[in-house]
Design goal:
heterodimer, A: alpha/beta, Peroxisomal Thiolase, Chain A, domain 1, 11-stranded mixed beta sheet, 13 helices, globular, B: alpha/beta
Chain lengths: ~425, ~400
């Protein structure tokens, strides 16, 4: 390859993905996940982690097969760790990673189980004025270091940095549902800026507990169709009624293409571009006109040096909430116009639910696997199409389709939007 | 120092601490003849003293009461201070600049509802079916909007809503490291030409026992009376937290000069690292970062230390500074503002930039440990040593 072939249309280093690892409710590892995802299998199930009596939503895509304590920080680390190990192995990186680490992690606080333990230890009664006073008195008597560590937001990244020998100060970030895509974007930036040849980008979310479920539920964000859990997430249908909260983890090793080829690494795809734009409309709702989403998609295409004819598959945000799916369709139709009917658009969330902080990275990996295999995963549960959303959603069954470029969308609570464009390795 | 169009310059400073609201209040603090009297609330969270939030007229930066109601004090303080920074930079009424402005916020989590937590723990004292109890109480007692006030990324979300900053929006977490990474990421984006202007900062509300328990899990909090930062030897772990916030507008020199913006200072390096702190590793990392930042000692160097106050770290940082920069003037600003977690590093940079711009001869904040400043500083080193993990520094030069 000539030097020039390592640069993009703006003369920046092209960025290769050389390692990927993933955990979702469908399983651990790319192989199990891809088989289930392309087979149209749902990972959504009744919640068994905690009692759900009297809750409006009793289903989720929790990951219940990892050997980790049922504490958000521990689960989040376990998913991140498993995904990173898989990604490092695929990238053939032994020993220290020796590049920066970007981690999208949920803002997890201490757990109720920990509060109960501290209250018991403090011997709190039934008529305390402020329970924290008693807990603090206990902590003054005896330190609880592991309690503090488990509740610090930087702990997942600290543990990953120690385990994988990353370099410098890791970034822990949250852009709500766009977090996974933002982590990748930061990795891309670090390489484009010439600060490093490689970056480790990880996104994880193991935060499904009673309080988080109830908080989302109180915002009327979640599906309440509990009777057939596997059917609850049904993006782009007329009877969609909210997202299904879920867990997962994903890790990608990003490298400058030049460095990847130079060390003989296998290139799994190219992270060609990203776009971002924030929304100022509302705390939980996107601008109804889709303005910020449109700007985000356009920025991603432009950053990737592509136009609306250059995308062969769209991995939708597709949350299955009434508002998102409508807004996403409007945005896509505005940007892609007459081309949209010819572009397959599917939502992985129909099967894995909304993995929140992890979603952008989980779905980036599925996008790259779509390119690699020529198989487009379906949107399942597409039984009652929303007539207002005229898209080829790859209904219910996977499809063979030559995909050379993917747009992956992530639109978050709090108005944080990020889109990624991934392509096949340049010939 | 030769000037370059891609220099990263500070053109807007929003700052709020127990000492007051805004840039001028803090400039006066830095230019005073003697150490400012501590502003401390000893009673409300006894035995822990805190530096309380000053009186703030929220409506001057958050005009809609509906917006104010959607937030608790942590978010309000951040959104308010971000507005001050935009105002100070002359960009508040510039929708085009705000719509293309990058934003990186260093955030923790929002306030928990202490009364709901207490209600649940009180009931739990007499019940064994605690998980069922949780469902009952959380479903009925949690205010739906409180979740949004607690979500880390909603401080940035509210800044977008109130001030229309929408070029991009990122929230970094991870205690003090979040503030270091936020400044560093904005700095690198501007320096490399990826961005021309950015809003970066953080806010911290210290007046909440749900945060105190995190510090006290490691017995880090000072108890009783306030003492100057480097002199703390009372019972407890040395940290006095403070409610405070700082936001900075960073710009490329070219962007700033094109609009005739006031330049407070040039940022010439932002470094961060982490790892084991055993056997001198902490000291070595600080020295390596400073080496990388090409920082030399001198009587015109001001060192704004963001030391948290935690006993076992305080003297190690101080000794490292004394060894490497014996001629510089050391000031521990956490003694004035309190320790402010995610906001700590941005606050240090804001104060250092103000000191450079106003050619301040800073009073001694701690007479027993800080030397008299012989002259105004021409450059400043801002340090941050996380109370549990992460370290960083920034180097600023007068322009």
């Amino acid at each position: 390859m000539t030097k020039r072939a390592y640069r993009d249309h703006l003369g920046r280093p092209l960025i290769a993905v050389t390692g990927m690892g993933i955990v979702t409710s469908l399983g651990q590892g790319k192989e199990d996940n891809w088989r289930a995802l392309t087979g149209g299998t749902s990972g959504i199930h009744a919640i068994t982690r905690f009692p759900t009596d009297a809750l409006a939503t009793r289903i989720s895509g929790t990951v219940d097969f990892m050997n980790a304590p049922i504490i958000s920080g521990e689960l989040s680390f376990a998913f991140a760790d498993a995904a990173t190990r898989e990604a490092m192995a695929q990238a053939s990186i032994d020993g220290d990673f020796n590049g920066p680490l970007f981690v999208a992690a949920p803002p997890v606080e201490c757990e109720w189980s920990q509060r109960f333990e501290l209250a018991d230890e403090a011997g709190l009664g039934a008529n305390e004025e402020n329970a924290y006073d008693g807990i603090l008195a206990t902590l003054r008597k005896k330190p609880h270091e592991s309690f503090t560590r488990s509740a610090l937001f930087g702990t997942v990244a600290e543990r990953l940095a120690d385990t994988y020998g990353t370099r410098g100060l890791p970034v822990t970030l949250s852009t709500a549902c766009a977090s996974g895509a933002t982590a990748i974007q930061l990795g891309v930036d670090a390489i484009r800026q010439g600060r490093t040849d490689r970056a480790l980008t990880v996104a994880t979310d193991g935060s499904v507990n009673a309080e988080s479920l109830i908080r989302f539920s109180l915002l009327s964000a979640l599906s309440t169709q509990n009777d057939q859990p596997e059917k609850a997430s049904k993006p782009f249908t007329k009877d969609r009624d909210g997202f299904v909260i879920a867990e997962g983890g994903a890790a990608l090793v990003l490298e400058s293409l030049e460095s990847a080829i130079g060390r003989g690494a296998r290139v799994l795809g190219i992270l060609k571009g990203y776009g971002e734009k924030a929304d100022h409309f509302h705390r939980t709702r996107s601008s109804p006109d889709g303005g910020p989403a449109i700007a985000t998609i356009q920025a991603a295409l432009s950053d990737a040096g592509l136009d609306e004819t250059g995308i062969s598959y769209i991995n939708a945000h597709g949350t299955s909430t009434p508002e998102n799916d409508k807004m996403e369709y409007q945005s896509l139709s505005t940007v892609f116009g007459d081309h949209l009917p010819n572009i397959p658009v599917s939502s992985n969330k129909s099967m894995i639910g909304h993995t929140l902080t992890a979603a952008g990275a989980v779905e980036a990996i599925f996008s790259l696997l779509t390119i690699a295999t020529g198989t487009v995963p379906p949107t399942i549960n597409y039984e009652n199409p929303d007539p207002a959303i005229e898209m080829d959603v790859v209904p219910n069954v996977k499809r063979d389709h030559n995909v050379t470029s993917v747009l992956s969308n992530s639109f978050g609570f709090g108005g944080q939007n990020a889109c990624l464009v991934m392509t096949a390795e340049p010939a | 120092m030769s000037k370059s169009p891609t220099d990263v310059v500070i053109t807007g400073i929003g700052i709020v601490s127990c000492h007051g609201v805004g840039r001028q209040a803090h400039e006066e603090l830095l230019k005073g003849n003697e150490a400012p009297a501590p502003v401390i609330d000893r009673d409300r969270f006894a035995p822990y003293p805190v530096h309380p939030m000053p009186q703030i007229d929220w409506s001057t930066q958050i005009p809609r009461r509906g917006d104010q109601r959607q937030m608790e004090n942590w978010q309000r303080l951040g959104v308010f201070t971000a507005g001050l920074a935009l105002d100070d930079a002359g960009l508040k009424e510039n929708p085009e600049a705000c719509a293309t402005m990058d934003m990186i916020v260093a955030a923790g989590g929002g306030e928990r509802d202490i009364s709901v937590d207490t209600l649940i723990l009180n009931e739990a004292a007499t019940r064994n079916d605690r998980e069922v109890l949780l469902n009952e109480k959380l479903t009925t007692e949690l205010r739906p909007t409180l979740f949004l006030a607690q979500l880390s990324n909603l401080l940035a979300g509210n800044i977008s809503i109130v001030h229309k900053v929408t070029g991009s929006s990122k929230t970094f977490m991870g205690e003090e490291s979040a503030g270091i990474s936020a400044v560093s990421t904005a700095y690198e984006r501007i320096r490399s030409g990826q961005s021309t202007h950015a809003l970066v900062g953080g806010a911290y509300n210290a007046e909440r026992p749900d945060m105190h328990i995190l510090y006290e899990g490691m017995q880090c909090l000072a108890q009783g009376d306030w003492q100057p930062l480097w002199s703390r030897d009372h019972v407890g772990g040395g940290i006095i937290t403070g409610s405070a916030s700082a936001f900075l507008v960073l710009e490329s020199r070219a962007h700033a000069e094109a609009r005739n913006a006031t330049i407070y200072a040039v940022v010439t390096a932002v470094e961060g690292n982490r790892g084991s702190r055993d056997e001198g590793a902490l000291e070595t990392r600080i020295e390596d970062m400073a080496k990388h930042a090409e920082l030399s000692d001198g009587s015109d160097l001001l060192i704004m230390s963001g030391a948290s106050g935690r006993h076992e770290l305080l003297n190690r940082e101080k000794a490292t500074i004394a060894k490497n920069w014996p001629d510089a003037a050391l000031r521990g600003y956490g003694g004035l503002t309190g320790h402010t977690m995610e906001a700590q590093f941005p606050i240090g940079i804001a104060l250092a930039a103000l000191a450079l711009k106003s050619a301040a001869i800073l009073p001694q904040f701690d007479q027993n440990h800080e030397a008299i400043m012989p002259e105004a500083a021409s450059s400043a080193l801002v340090t941050a040593v996380g109370f549990v993990h992460g370290e960083g520094l920034a180097v600023l030069k007068a322009d």
